[in-house]
């Protein structure tokens, strides 16, 4: 088993804070195309590698006009081919949408091509709407077998037993590191039971964060992959030279989530004046949006850094997964670079 499979790898920094990683959605902005979005994602990953980030993950969503990473493993291959040291993975593969064998083959292929750099984050939500679930040939009962499907997937990554009738090729014997992703106690308890690292989706579903982390740590059973608990939390970060500029960038994400609340999803929109959003809220929408995006850290480096430090101190997480839905590519890259400088990240040797 590789060292990567035994313990989640962390970036080599100067000890200024937790490992930092990035969850990207290959966002399709107004006026762009899916191809441009995926190429921009690869360019971002290349820069993140140079700035010292630990991982670059892509999400799986379907039937969403603003997200180009629906074919997650295909997109990850493109990202991995363009980078050399940063870990590349799924945040996550929605396992109820797939057979475990197919995912083992896909990620076994990635691990074979880019050994020691592939992560497989797994979620049990469909990542889409009920009608699209039916188009995926799935139904609401698919998520009920998630624990069994995770274990089946694990088994395909083990060395094949003599006479084993069904084998994942590529995949068998590669032991690609698995993560459980979640936003409730269910995922936390499953990750603890299986002895897998756990990532909580606090960047959009924060309510159960502390209860889930506690349940995971208290119930953790050591496994061949992980000898001790390892936790990651998602946060949204928007950094600019001034608080006002960062708040302006944040309005693109606010508009996107407002569209989700209204079931009117579209392409990622340019930022607007923050005050203009006050004219569009329907009753209860602002409160719901503020709750969903509670762990969004927006402002200048001087504003953002102490707030992130406090979040890490309060949660005790080992790693932060950063999401930044920023419309302008230059501003998006600048935000991530500023964050790397704030935490004194350093690229790994040879990166």
TrEMBL record:
Signal peptide (residue range): none
Q: Record's InterPro entries?
A: Bact_Lucif_Oxidored, CmoO-like, Luciferase-like_dom, Luciferase-like_sf
Known CDD domains for this protein?
Flavin_utilizing_monoxygenases
* Luciferase-like domain boundaries: 31-318
Mark the transmembrane ranges: none
Do you know which Gene3D superfamilies this protein is assigned to?
A: Luciferase-like domain (3.20.20.30)
Database matches in Pfam families: Bac_luciferase
Q: Indicate the family of this protein.
A: To bacterial alkanal monooxygenase alpha and beta chains.
Name listed for the protein in its UniProt record = Luciferase family oxidoreductase group 1
Q: Which organism is it from?
A: Nocardiopsis terrae
């Amino acid at each position: 088993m590789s060292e990567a499979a035994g313990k989640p790898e962390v970036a080599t920094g100067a000890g200024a804070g937790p490992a930092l990683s990035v969850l990207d959605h290959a966002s399709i902005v107004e006026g762009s195309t899916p191809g441009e979005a995926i190429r921009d994602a690869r360019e971002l990953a290349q820069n993140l590698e140079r700035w010292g980030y630990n991982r670059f993950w892509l999400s799986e969503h379907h039937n969403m006009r603003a997200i180009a990473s629906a074919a997650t493993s295909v997109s990850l291959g493109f990202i991995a081919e363009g980078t050399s040291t940063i870990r590349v993975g799924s945040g996550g593969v929605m396992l109820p949408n797939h057979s475990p064998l197919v995912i083992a083959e896909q990620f076994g292929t990635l691990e074979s091509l880019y050994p020691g750099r592939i992560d497989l984050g797994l979620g049990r939500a469909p990542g889409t709407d009920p009608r699209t679930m039916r188009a995926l040939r799935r139904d609401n009962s698919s998520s009920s077998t998630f624990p069994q499907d995770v274990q089946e997937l694990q088994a395909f990554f083990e060395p094949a037993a003599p006479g084993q009738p069904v084998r994942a090729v590529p995949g068998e014997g590669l032991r690609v590191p698995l993560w459980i992703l979640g936003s409730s106690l269910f995922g936390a308890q499953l990750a603890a039971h299986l002895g897998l690292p756990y990532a909580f989706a606090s960047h959009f579903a924060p309510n159960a964060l502390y209860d889930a982390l506690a349940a995971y740590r208290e119930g953790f059973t050591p496994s061949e992959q992980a000898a001790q608990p390892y936790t990651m939390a998602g946060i949204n970060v928007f950094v600019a030279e001034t608080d006002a500029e960062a708040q302006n960038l944040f309005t693109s994400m606010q508009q996107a989530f407002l569209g989700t609340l209204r079931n009117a999803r579209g392409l990622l929109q340019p930022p607007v004046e923050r005050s203009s959003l006050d004219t569009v809220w329907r009753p209860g929408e602002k409160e719901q949006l503020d709750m969903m995006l509670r762990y969004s850290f927006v402002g200048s480096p001087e504003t953002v850094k102490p707030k992130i430090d406090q979040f890490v101190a309060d949660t005790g997480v080992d790693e932060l997964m950063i999401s930044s839905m920023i419309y302008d590519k230059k501003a998006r890259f600048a935000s991530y670079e500023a964050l790397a400088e704030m935490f004194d990240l350093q690229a790994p040797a040879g990166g």
